Amino acid sequence: MTTTSPAPAAPRAAQEEPLLRLTDVRKYFPVGSSRLWERDRAVVHAVDGVSLTVARGETLGLVGETGCGKSTLARCIARLYDLTSGEVWFDGQDISRLSRRRMRPVRRDVQMIFQDPYGSLNPHRRVGSIIGDPFAIHGIESRRSRRQAAQELMERVGLNPEHYNRFPAEFSGGQRQRIGLARALALRPKLIVCDEPVSALDVSIQAQIINLLADLQQEFGLTYVFISHDLSVVRHVSDRIAVMYLGKIVELAPTDELFELTRHPYTRSLLSALPAPDPDTADSRERIVLAGDVPNPTRPPSGCRFHPRCPKAHLDCAASEPPLLPVLGDGAEHPTACFYPLEPGEDLSLAVSEFAPAAERPRGGTGDTP
Amino acid sequence: MTAPQPSPTVHVVGASDAEESPDERRIQGRSPWVLAWGRLRRDRIAMISLGVIVLIVLIAIFAPVFTLLTGHGPNDQYRLTGLSPQGLPVAPNHEFWLGTDDLGRDILVRIAYGARISLLVGIVATVITVAIGVVVGIAAGYFGGVVDTLLARLVDVVLSVPFLLVAIALVSITGPSLTVVILVIGLFSWASVARIVRGQVLSLREREFVEAARSLGASDTRIMFVDVLPNVLAPVIVYTSLLVPVVILTEATLSFLSLGLPPPTADWGGMISEAVPYYQTSWWFVIFPGAALLITTLAFNLFGDGVRDAFDPRSERLLQQ
Ligand SMILES: Nc1ncnc2c1ncn2[C@@H]1O[C@H](COP(=O)(O)OP(=O)(O)O)[C@@H](O)[C@H]1O
Ligand SMILES: [Mg+2]
User: Fold this and answer.
1) Do A80 and B30 touch (CB under 8 A)?
2) In whole angstroms, what is the distance from residue A164 CA to residue A131 CA?
3) What is the CATH number of the domain that holds A176?
């Protein structure tokens, strides 16, 4: 694919234009009282400078602990929120500042699936009309063919089309998630943002939904942003994985590389919480238990936001923020935001944070124990 | 929108997957309304009250039948047969089943015609009240911000205006009429409905199905009336069923104070007020219109209680048995 002549760069660039590109997306929520004379109100830095791209037909996984801003980022992509700053480029167009009217055609291409299979379906409406909603809103299909289209969608996602007239309460959690999926599919979108689509489901049902998502991706050429706090789920579905911590991406890599060549201590701590795929190696696996809770996002820590909990934090980690760039000779597809990334095979359980109190260090740099 | 009537349940035999329970074979869904109706139907007191309400409605509709039966019009004065030689009302007898009033009119026939006024005002004023309250409440809750603040102030103002004073002032300007009674009641009762609805919408607005509608590109109007409205209807219906008797009483009060319909219109509140000077000599004159009013408001209140219980999720399990 390498071209020697630099002239036809423009059409090539257009061809390679990713379906979705976020540049420095920020979303802050003001919290507390909204008195006019209160100058400095507390602000939740829910998403704080996220840049990433998603190629056509790929699945980008997004992981991170609860409260790190995954849902907020998803809603920024779907333009359910107005951004505080930054840009969201979708299909060659910056949609972050489109008016409501100009946004309408884009909404056909960007759909969302929600975490809560109970909350995302209106309990007072029949599933047929819920699934037919996209047609009604965009004025496509007549009333009669809308019913037929909704029934075809139900069939496609594995629901009995005869249950068209039922209410959401009469379906199980997994079936409801299928209903939400049918609604998202109705307008044949290009991108579906799945915000923890299986987190509320039983493990056995999770697999069914994930397989369905994979089938639909094949069939309709869909692109997914797949969000979960569970790395094992994300690993299953993603081509690439972005790890998020307190509103920022800390590591981004192709799925296998993220697992084999983990660079960020936070990613490693998430990985160590997973059950080992191979029982033989299970014993040799380190367990990293992070100290403390996720910090308050209204006042994120200085420098690297992970430093108060990082097992190998150095004093300078608190001073400045590590940029999200490839480290230790990694390729451009694997950036990490860390000043002291992990070497292959490095044992993080032996590391000692320079921020830990001296008494808690078993063997440390101070070395005053005989 | 889902009608609050029970929809027919279709059972399809044989068309089921292996994993489905027998209940799964039902094709027709049971809406929350149908479920609530199912619970309401098991409530004996509510059903008796509903029967009484239906009876009163029938009496109102077929009031002319009482004229046919007795041969007395509602405003006909029977000075010879309907008044004693001293000019006092006559007690119930074979001609005047519930006695007569001070002008020798048949109380039974007037009660039947009076039911028309009570129900008409009770229902029309309630509908106006609820319509205004729902629209204002949904708008305030859904849009929030400045809209909410302005509407909340308006609600405060309406709730703090002395209702009777304004009613008296209005009637003294326009003269008593059915329209004024309905408007006065409607314009002063919506504020509490708006408050209830606003509170509900505030939490509904954050629900994911509203976000889903928004992500599909639905307009605010569509979200408010297609997605939000059905979810606030339950408390609104409960409130409405308890509001009807209040409105009926208010209308009677206005008529009692001569702020309601002008005479000689048959009206329960007006009849009671005409009867007050005679309470010692002619008990039937005050008792029967009073009983009509009491039974009507009691029936609506008990029915409203039943509706509230039927929509209460805590009684959900009753139906599962
Ligand atoms: N509407 C909001 N107003 C204020 N704070 C919010 C709002 N939505 C989310 N947050 C805050 O932003 C942070 C990120 O939330 P969220 O995006 O839901 O995280 P996640 O989906 O990763 O669990 C949390 O601290 C949360 O409390
Ligand atoms: Mg979330």
Assistant:
1) no
2) 9
3) 3.40.50.300
